[in-house]
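Fold this: AEC family transporter
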Amino acid sequence: MLILQQMIIFVLLMAAGALARRYEILTPANQPQITKLVVNIAYPAIILSGVTGKGPRIEGAELAYAFGVILIMLVLLMISAWLLPRILRYPKEHYGIINVMVIFTNIGFMGVPMIDGIYGKDALIYMTVLLIPFNILFFSYVIQTIKGHSDKKEPFRWQNLANTGMGACILAIVLYLSGIELPYVLAQSITMLGSMTAPLAMMLLGSFLADTEWKGMINGRIIAFTIIKMLVIPIVLTLLLGRFVDNTYLLAVCMAALATPSGNIIPLLAAVYHKEAYPVSVQGIALTTAAAVVTMPLVALATGLG
Protein backbone atom coordinates (compact mmCIF):
# COMPACT_ATOMS: atom_id res chain seq x y z
CA MET A 1 0.00 0.00 0.00
CA LEU A 2 1.49 3.32 -1.12
CA ILE A 3 0.51 5.35 1.96
CA LEU A 4 1.88 2.67 4.30
CA GLN A 5 5.17 2.77 2.40
CA GLN A 6 5.18 6.56 2.61
CA MET A 7 4.51 6.47 6.36
CA ILE A 8 7.38 4.01 6.85
CA ILE A 9 9.62 6.49 5.04
CA PHE A 10 8.31 9.24 7.34
CA VAL A 11 8.99 7.07 10.40
CA LEU A 12 12.59 6.49 9.29
CA LEU A 13 13.05 10.23 8.73
CA MET A 14 11.53 11.00 12.15
CA ALA A 15 13.86 8.41 13.71
CA ALA A 16 16.77 10.26 12.09
CA GLY A 17 15.46 13.47 13.66
CA ALA A 18 15.19 11.81 17.07
CA LEU A 19 18.79 10.61 16.75
CA ALA A 20 19.86 14.09 15.69
CA ARG A 21 18.19 15.44 18.84
CA ARG A 22 19.80 12.72 20.96
CA TYR A 23 23.26 13.71 19.76
CA GLU A 24 22.44 17.44 19.90
CA ILE A 25 22.67 18.06 16.17
CA LEU A 26 19.10 19.30 16.37
CA THR A 27 18.77 21.39 19.53
CA PRO A 28 16.19 23.78 21.05
CA ALA A 29 18.51 26.57 19.91
CA ASN A 30 18.57 25.68 16.19
CA GLN A 31 15.12 24.07 15.75
CA PRO A 32 13.37 27.46 15.29
CA GLN A 33 15.79 28.42 12.50
CA ILE A 34 15.37 25.08 10.70
CA THR A 35 11.60 25.37 11.08
CA LYS A 36 11.75 28.81 9.44
CA LEU A 37 13.80 27.29 6.61
CA VAL A 38 11.11 24.67 5.99
CA VAL A 39 8.14 27.04 6.36
CA ASN A 40 9.56 29.99 4.41
CA ILE A 41 11.68 28.33 1.71
CA ALA A 42 11.24 24.57 1.25
CA TYR A 43 7.47 24.46 1.76
CA PRO A 44 6.66 27.31 -0.68
CA ALA A 45 9.06 25.73 -3.17
CA ILE A 46 7.25 22.39 -3.16
CA ILE A 47 3.96 24.24 -3.76
CA LEU A 48 5.45 26.04 -6.75
CA SER A 49 7.09 22.87 -8.06
CA GLY A 50 3.61 21.47 -8.66
CA VAL A 51 2.99 23.97 -11.46
CA THR A 52 6.44 24.22 -13.04
CA GLY A 53 6.28 20.89 -14.86
CA LYS A 54 4.62 19.95 -18.13
CA GLY A 55 2.16 17.38 -16.81
CA PRO A 56 -1.60 17.23 -17.49
CA ARG A 57 -3.53 20.42 -16.77
CA ILE A 58 -7.00 21.07 -15.43
CA GLU A 59 -9.28 23.78 -16.79
CA GLY A 60 -10.52 26.85 -14.95
CA ALA A 61 -14.00 25.38 -14.41
CA GLU A 62 -12.49 22.31 -12.78
CA LEU A 63 -10.30 24.50 -10.59
CA ALA A 64 -13.42 26.37 -9.48
CA TYR A 65 -15.12 23.03 -8.78
CA ALA A 66 -12.11 21.90 -6.72
CA PHE A 67 -12.21 25.14 -4.76
CA GLY A 68 -15.91 24.59 -4.02
CA VAL A 69 -15.33 21.01 -2.83
CA ILE A 70 -12.53 22.15 -0.55
CA LEU A 71 -14.69 24.91 0.94
CA ILE A 72 -17.43 22.35 1.67
CA MET A 73 -14.83 20.08 3.31
CA LEU A 74 -13.61 22.95 5.51
CA VAL A 75 -17.16 23.80 6.58
CA LEU A 76 -17.84 20.17 7.52
CA LEU A 77 -14.54 20.07 9.39
CA MET A 78 -15.36 23.25 11.32
CA ILE A 79 -18.72 21.75 12.35
CA SER A 80 -16.94 18.59 13.54
CA ALA A 81 -14.39 20.69 15.41
CA TRP A 82 -17.16 22.63 17.17
CA LEU A 83 -18.89 19.42 18.26
CA LEU A 84 -15.90 17.37 19.40
CA PRO A 85 -14.88 19.18 22.62
CA ARG A 86 -18.52 19.23 23.68
CA ILE A 87 -18.99 15.51 22.98
CA LEU A 88 -15.84 14.70 24.99
CA ARG A 89 -16.91 17.12 27.75
CA TYR A 90 -13.76 19.19 27.80
CA PRO A 91 -13.84 22.22 30.10
CA LYS A 92 -15.14 25.31 28.28
CA GLU A 93 -11.75 27.00 28.49
CA HIS A 94 -10.34 24.17 26.33
CA TYR A 95 -12.99 24.33 23.60
CA GLY A 96 -10.89 26.67 21.48
CA ILE A 97 -7.67 24.65 21.54
CA ILE A 98 -9.49 21.38 20.74
CA ASN A 99 -11.34 23.12 17.92
CA VAL A 100 -8.08 24.36 16.39
CA MET A 101 -6.34 20.98 16.75
CA VAL A 102 -9.11 19.33 14.71
CA ILE A 103 -9.11 21.88 11.87
CA PHE A 104 -5.48 22.88 11.51
CA THR A 105 -3.49 19.79 10.67
CA ASN A 106 0.14 19.29 9.75
CA ILE A 107 -0.77 19.54 6.08
CA GLY A 108 2.47 21.33 5.19
CA PHE A 109 4.87 19.01 6.98
CA MET A 110 3.11 15.71 6.23
CA GLY A 111 0.24 16.22 3.78
CA VAL A 112 2.13 17.99 0.99
CA PRO A 113 5.10 15.55 0.97
CA MET A 114 2.68 12.60 1.18
CA ILE A 115 0.61 13.74 -1.82
CA ASP A 116 3.79 14.55 -3.74
CA GLY A 117 5.31 11.16 -2.95
CA ILE A 118 2.22 9.09 -3.75
CA TYR A 119 0.41 10.96 -6.54
CA GLY A 120 3.20 13.12 -7.96
CA LYS A 121 3.33 16.72 -9.11
CA ASP A 122 0.04 16.49 -11.02
CA ALA A 123 -1.87 16.35 -7.72
CA LEU A 124 -0.12 19.34 -6.15
CA ILE A 125 -2.27 21.89 -7.99
CA TYR A 126 -5.22 20.60 -5.93
CA MET A 127 -3.12 20.95 -2.79
CA THR A 128 -2.38 24.54 -3.80
CA VAL A 129 -6.11 25.22 -4.18
CA LEU A 130 -6.61 23.78 -0.68
CA LEU A 131 -3.85 25.82 0.93
CA ILE A 132 -5.24 29.23 -0.04
CA PRO A 133 -8.49 29.01 2.00
CA PHE A 134 -6.63 26.95 4.62
CA ASN A 135 -4.09 29.75 5.14
CA ILE A 136 -6.76 32.46 5.12
CA LEU A 137 -8.75 30.52 7.71
CA PHE A 138 -5.66 29.92 9.82
CA PHE A 139 -4.54 33.52 10.05
CA SER A 140 -8.04 34.96 10.44
CA TYR A 141 -9.44 32.41 12.89
CA VAL A 142 -6.87 30.48 14.86
CA ILE A 143 -5.67 33.06 17.40
CA GLN A 144 -9.16 34.23 18.32
CA THR A 145 -10.28 30.60 18.70
CA ILE A 146 -7.29 29.57 20.82
CA LYS A 147 -7.97 32.50 23.14
CA GLY A 148 -11.42 31.07 23.70
CA HIS A 149 -12.84 32.56 26.87
CA SER A 150 -9.79 34.67 27.72
CA ASP A 151 -10.06 38.45 27.78
CA LYS A 152 -7.31 38.89 25.20
CA LYS A 153 -8.78 39.76 21.84
CA GLU A 154 -6.76 40.53 18.75
CA PRO A 155 -8.56 41.94 15.71
CA PHE A 156 -8.02 40.35 12.32
CA ARG A 157 -5.34 42.08 10.27
CA TRP A 158 -4.89 41.55 6.55
CA GLN A 159 -1.12 41.72 6.96
CA ASN A 160 -1.32 38.40 8.83
CA LEU A 161 -1.91 36.81 5.41
CA ALA A 162 1.37 38.18 4.05
CA ASN A 163 3.61 35.13 4.30
CA THR A 164 5.64 33.05 1.90
CA GLY A 165 3.23 30.10 1.96
CA MET A 166 0.30 32.28 0.91
CA GLY A 167 2.48 34.02 -1.67
CA ALA A 168 3.54 30.68 -3.15
CA CYS A 169 -0.11 29.53 -3.37
CA ILE A 170 -1.20 32.68 -5.20
CA LEU A 171 1.84 32.67 -7.51
CA ALA A 172 1.25 28.98 -8.30
CA ILE A 173 -2.35 29.70 -9.31
CA VAL A 174 -1.24 32.67 -11.46
CA LEU A 175 1.47 30.65 -13.19
CA TYR A 176 -0.90 27.75 -13.74
CA LEU A 177 -3.81 29.75 -15.15
CA SER A 178 -1.58 31.95 -17.33
CA GLY A 179 0.34 29.00 -18.77
CA ILE A 180 3.69 30.74 -18.15
CA GLU A 181 6.59 28.28 -18.24
CA LEU A 182 9.58 29.07 -16.06
CA PRO A 183 13.08 28.61 -17.47
CA TYR A 184 14.50 25.15 -16.81
CA VAL A 185 17.21 26.43 -14.47
CA LEU A 186 14.69 28.27 -12.29
CA ALA A 187 12.13 25.43 -12.35
CA GLN A 188 14.78 22.86 -11.42
CA SER A 189 16.08 25.05 -8.60
CA ILE A 190 12.54 25.35 -7.18
CA THR A 191 12.08 21.56 -7.43
CA MET A 192 15.35 20.90 -5.61
CA LEU A 193 14.46 23.35 -2.85
CA GLY A 194 11.05 21.74 -2.48
CA SER A 195 12.63 18.30 -2.16
CA MET A 196 14.03 19.39 1.22
CA THR A 197 10.54 19.67 2.70
CA ALA A 198 9.86 16.05 3.62
CA PRO A 199 13.23 15.13 5.18
CA LEU A 200 13.64 18.35 7.15
CA ALA A 201 10.02 18.46 8.30
CA MET A 202 9.99 14.81 9.40
CA MET A 203 13.30 15.20 11.23
CA LEU A 204 11.89 18.21 13.08
CA LEU A 205 8.82 16.20 14.07
CA GLY A 206 11.08 13.37 15.24
CA SER A 207 13.06 15.75 17.43
CA PHE A 208 9.78 17.13 18.83
CA LEU A 209 8.60 13.64 19.77
CA ALA A 210 11.99 12.85 21.32
CA ASP A 211 11.62 15.93 23.54
CA THR A 212 8.07 15.04 24.59
CA GLU A 213 7.55 14.02 28.21
CA TRP A 214 5.21 11.06 27.76
CA LYS A 215 4.79 10.14 31.42
CA GLY A 216 1.38 11.19 32.69
CA MET A 217 0.33 12.45 29.25
CA ILE A 218 -2.00 9.62 28.24
CA ASN A 219 -5.56 9.61 29.53
CA GLY A 220 -8.94 8.42 28.31
CA ARG A 221 -10.07 11.79 26.99
CA ILE A 222 -6.97 12.44 24.88
CA ILE A 223 -7.10 8.88 23.52
CA ALA A 224 -10.76 9.40 22.54
CA PHE A 225 -9.83 12.74 20.93
CA THR A 226 -7.06 11.06 18.92
CA ILE A 227 -9.28 8.23 17.70
CA ILE A 228 -12.06 10.59 16.61
CA LYS A 229 -9.73 13.20 15.09
CA MET A 230 -7.40 10.75 13.33
CA LEU A 231 -9.85 8.02 12.28
CA VAL A 232 -13.54 8.82 12.61
CA ILE A 233 -13.60 12.36 11.18
CA PRO A 234 -11.30 11.74 8.18
CA ILE A 235 -12.98 8.47 7.23
CA VAL A 236 -16.54 9.78 7.56
CA LEU A 237 -15.90 13.10 5.78
CA THR A 238 -13.79 11.55 2.99
CA LEU A 239 -16.41 8.87 2.31
CA LEU A 240 -19.11 11.54 2.35
CA LEU A 241 -17.20 13.69 -0.15
CA GLY A 242 -16.44 10.60 -2.22
CA ARG A 243 -20.15 10.16 -2.93
CA PHE A 244 -20.06 13.38 -4.95
CA VAL A 245 -16.39 13.69 -6.04
CA ASP A 246 -14.93 11.28 -8.59
CA ASN A 247 -11.56 13.03 -8.96
CA THR A 248 -9.00 10.86 -7.17
CA TYR A 249 -6.40 13.64 -6.83
CA LEU A 250 -8.91 16.06 -5.32
CA LEU A 251 -10.32 13.46 -2.94
CA ALA A 252 -6.80 12.37 -1.89
CA VAL A 253 -5.88 15.98 -1.08
CA CYS A 254 -9.03 16.31 1.07
CA MET A 255 -8.17 13.04 2.79
CA ALA A 256 -4.62 14.24 3.47
CA ALA A 257 -5.91 17.48 5.00
CA LEU A 258 -8.28 15.52 7.26
CA ALA A 259 -6.00 12.61 8.23
CA THR A 260 -2.75 14.39 9.07
CA PRO A 261 -2.00 15.07 12.76
CA SER A 262 -2.67 18.36 14.48
CA GLY A 263 -0.27 21.15 13.49
CA ASN A 264 2.82 21.44 15.67
CA ILE A 265 2.67 25.25 15.63
CA ILE A 266 -0.44 25.13 17.84
CA PRO A 267 1.38 24.68 21.19
CA LEU A 268 3.57 27.67 20.34
CA LEU A 269 0.46 29.82 19.83
CA ALA A 270 -1.17 28.38 22.95
CA ALA A 271 1.90 29.30 25.00
CA VAL A 272 1.46 32.92 23.90
CA TYR A 273 -2.33 33.36 23.82
CA HIS A 274 -3.81 30.79 26.22
CA LYS A 275 -1.24 29.29 28.60
CA GLU A 276 -3.86 27.29 30.48
CA ALA A 277 -4.54 25.31 27.29
CA TYR A 278 -0.84 24.67 26.54
CA PRO A 279 -0.65 21.21 28.26
CA VAL A 280 -3.72 20.01 26.33
CA SER A 281 -2.20 21.22 23.05
CA VAL A 282 1.07 19.35 23.71
CA GLN A 283 -0.87 16.17 24.52
CA GLY A 284 -2.90 16.44 21.32
CA ILE A 285 0.00 17.23 19.01
CA ALA A 286 2.27 14.52 20.43
CA LEU A 287 -0.34 11.76 20.43
CA THR A 288 -1.84 12.53 16.99
CA THR A 289 1.66 12.72 15.47
CA ALA A 290 2.67 9.39 16.99
CA ALA A 291 -0.66 7.78 16.03
CA ALA A 292 -0.44 9.01 12.40
CA VAL A 293 1.96 6.21 11.53
CA VAL A 294 -0.92 3.75 12.01
CA THR A 295 -4.02 5.87 11.45
CA MET A 296 -3.12 7.46 8.10
CA PRO A 297 -2.71 4.11 6.32
CA LEU A 298 -5.95 2.91 7.96
CA VAL A 299 -7.81 6.00 6.69
CA ALA A 300 -6.39 5.48 3.21
CA LEU A 301 -7.43 1.80 3.29
CA ALA A 302 -10.94 2.59 4.56
CA THR A 303 -11.46 5.28 1.90
CA GLY A 304 -9.88 3.36 -0.97
CA LEU A 305 -7.19 6.00 -1.52
CA GLY A 306 -4.15 3.95 -0.49
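The mean pLDDT is 84. The radius of gyration is 19 Å.
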